[in-house]
Design a protein that fits this description.
Mean pLDDT: 94
Shape: elongated
Structural class: alpha+beta
Order of helices and strands: HEEHHEEEE
Number of helices: 3
Distance between the termini: 23 Å
Radius of gyration: 16 Å
Length: about 120
Amino acid sequence: MTAQVREALGDPGDAAAAVIYVPHTSAGVVIQEHADPAVGRDIEMALERIVDEAWPWEHIEEGDVNPWSHVRASLTATSVVIPIEGGKLALGTWQGIFFCEFDGPRTRRVLVRTLA
């Protein structure tokens, strides 16, 4: 979602940083290598192995069986802060911003704001 964040920021002016925030309990955001699409698949596979859907979960709501999604989201982040240098996100050469959906597809919001 790096391109979408850049688009949402537009011209950040003199901002010092950008905050990317995911206001959901079963989704997250991470910064990771974006050059090889296999990295995202590897992260997804690892989280599925670390947090197994077959466990005897206690958080079961009728019509919305997703307890593993909350745990997977807790292993990522709800927000990231990225410095802005020269009007651009100061991401490393190989870094990209990833939205992590653990209970979807669903309609989600991602808030992007600048900090002075």
